[in-house]
Amino acid sequence: MKIGIPRALLYSIYLPLWKTFLEELGHTVILSNHTDQNILDNGVKNCVDDACLPVKIFHGHVTALAGRTDIILIPRLVSVYPGEFICPKFIGLPEMIKHSVPCNPGIIIMNFNARFSMDRGYDGMRNLGRELGATKDLVAQALDRARIRQAEHMRRMEAEPGFNPVRSIDKKDQKPPRLDQGIIGLIGHPYLVYDRYINMNICDKLNERGYGILFPENIPAESVDRACNRYPKKLFWSYGKRLLGSGLCMLENKLVDGLILLTSFGCGIDAFIDELLIRANHREYKIPLTTITLDEHTGQAGFDTRLEAFIDMMEWRSRYDNHVPTYGTGVYPGKSLI
Amino acid sequence: MSKLELFLGLDVGSVSINLVLLDQRYRVLEKLYLRTQGKPIAVLSEGLERLHHTMPAGSTIAGVGVTGSGRELAGAMVDADVIKNEITAHGMAVLQSIPDAQTILEIGGQDSKIILLRNGVVSDFAMNTVCAAGTGSFLDRQAARLNIPIQDFGSMALKSRSPTRIAGRCAVFAESDMIHKQQMGCSLEDIIKGLCEALVRNYLNNVGKGKEILPQIVFQGGVAANEGIRNSFEEALGHPVIVPEHYDVMGAVGAGILAHKAIQRGQATKFRGFHSIRGKFTAKSFSCSGCANLCEIVEFFSDGNIKARWGDRCGKWSAALVNNSQADILA
């Protein structure tokens, strides 16, 4: 069977798991194209109007797959880590698709709920395998192989700074390391930082100015947890925790020269996660930091202005920080000591 | 006497196009503030022509800098030496004219921004996000609705005795609130002052959120002409707010200064004289069909010869554009 997987939301993180599993069961996996204008337009047209941009884009990818495949896989991620949940829009995703996408493509739902334990999280995949007609043994074998692939994907994300999972999925080289200006931490959900259409190609733009990038997924899970321990309560939305914890870890260990927070307009979790990070930076670390809000704009001018101004500011500040006054002159330019 | 070398700064914004001529000590010799009226090419050509006639005898243009949302367009037209964003340009202009300034409040036609200056460099900034409520174009519209010339808007606010409370979160809410208050019988002065306070409240909550606003505070951009807003800023912040002499063209001043710095660093000016901008400039756009993104490509012609292209995501069209070097001009 030809099974379509939308290249949207968390596919960049979990694709090796899903794809290997389905292929091991003997199916062909077809991915939608990378997000483009057409997909965005279709997403906006076929989605409830107050959903966030990434959810709209997911709808666009489903529309793009309709007709090209026998059936489309819609993941329902409830919890990806024991004791934690993720954004409820992921839980309602299959229903949103069923009721919003008009051409009514056939869909299959793959549940993932690791709330009680990691292993029980895979029950949804086991059930799906049986529904697709595979034997219990084949399902177990497929899942084992899929988990090995996934573990390798996760390992590389943590082990290789600047590792871009989408480039890995596309079997492209990771960026060459001729990036000597510094490192910028790019804090945002995977569906923003790895989707070069929505984020106006921010990664290439930073690379062109000579900056390497550190993504939230590059920070090991234990460091994320440790960094979040400073807060009195557990941050139970896994991706919120990852953004905040990875940002804090980058700040604490001086891994980056600046932080850019990418957020899509109306994201509930970012509204307070970003704020916590901004406050922590303001209180303790004081490195250049900016927030860039993404929405349906296609004009790049406003985005480029903010990005360029931010890089200028970083370079201007760093030149000042490295400024050693000569004897008899003030530390502050323009003010004489004598 | 040696030739007088001047620098040209241009700020091509959504509402106004500003041109300044600076001398080497960054004194503004000449300035023009023109309404964009949706025709940046025509208005800029006309402005440059006017500026050319006011140049002192024996002076030459030694460098050109452009900024503003139309900076690519203007940069291609005049062969600019520096094309820079507005934050850097505004920061530079204030650092040169008011060295002890620590905060810049800037409200223009479509943008509002806050820039923090510490130790002589830009240390933090923020711009309005997706909404343009509370910027110059909204004030323009309200003045037109109330049939008051925009120049008188600020002075009317100062006459208010008990300002009304207007919702400032959203321009649409603000307008309906203003109409309610007007129908209740509140005086026009009180409503206008209420609007000024609402804009300031919104600006400080939105753009200025979490920023440490320390004196000296400089207020610039077209809206700084409005005494009512300035007055409300002073009340809200508890500090005097300075409106610099050239508040309306500070972006252009900054662009001129950046051009001077680029030339000082040994870059040769690309500007080829005013005669070279007398040609007929045209722009046309088309939708690229190379991929599903359908980018809108703008082609810019001078006397029928292609000068620049922009608008593509992949860079295949704009690669023809002469790359303005990201020269190291900030220090």
Can you give keywords for this protein?
heterodimer, A: 338 residues, alpha/beta, Rossmann fold, 2 domains, 4-stranded parallel sheet, 15 helices, B: 331 residues, Nucleotidyltransferase, domain 5, 5-stranded mixed sheet, 9 helices, 13 strands, 34% helix, 24% strand, disordered C terminus
Describe this structure as you would to a colleague:
- The complex is a heterodimer of chains A (338) and B (331).
- With 338 residues, chain A is α/β, with parallel strands linked by helices.
- Chain A folds into 2 domains: 158 residues, 3-Layer(aba) Sandwich (Rossmann fold); 157 residues, Rossmann fold, CATH 3.40.50.
- Chain A contains 15 helices and 8 strands.
- In chain A, strands 2-1-3-4 form a 4-stranded parallel sheet, sandwiched between helices. Chain A has a 4-stranded parallel sheet with strand order 6-5-7-8, with helices on both faces.
- In chain A, helix 1 runs antiparallel to helix 8 and helix 13 packs parallel to helix 14.
- Chain A is globular and about 65 Å long.
- The C terminus of chain A is likely disordered.
- Chain B has 331 residues and is of the alpha/beta class.
- Chain B folds into 2 domains: 113 residues, Nucleotidyltransferase, domain 5; 144 residues, 2-Layer Sandwich (Nucleotidyltransferase, domain 5).
- Chain B contains 9 helices and 13 strands.
- In chain B, the strands form 3 sheets. Chain B has a 5-stranded mixed sheet with strand order 3-2-1-4-5. Chain B has a 5-stranded mixed sheet with strand order 8-7-6-9-10. In chain B, strands 11-12-13 form a 3-stranded antiparallel sheet, covered by helices on one side.
- In chain B, helix 5 packs across helix 7 and helix 6 runs antiparallel to helix 7.
- The longest helix of chain B has 19 residues.
- Chain B is globular.
- In chain B, 46% of the residues are buried.
- The chains are: A alpha/beta (338), B alpha/beta (331).
- Chains A and B meet through helix 2, helix 14, strand 8 and helix 15 of A and helix 3 and strand 8 of B.
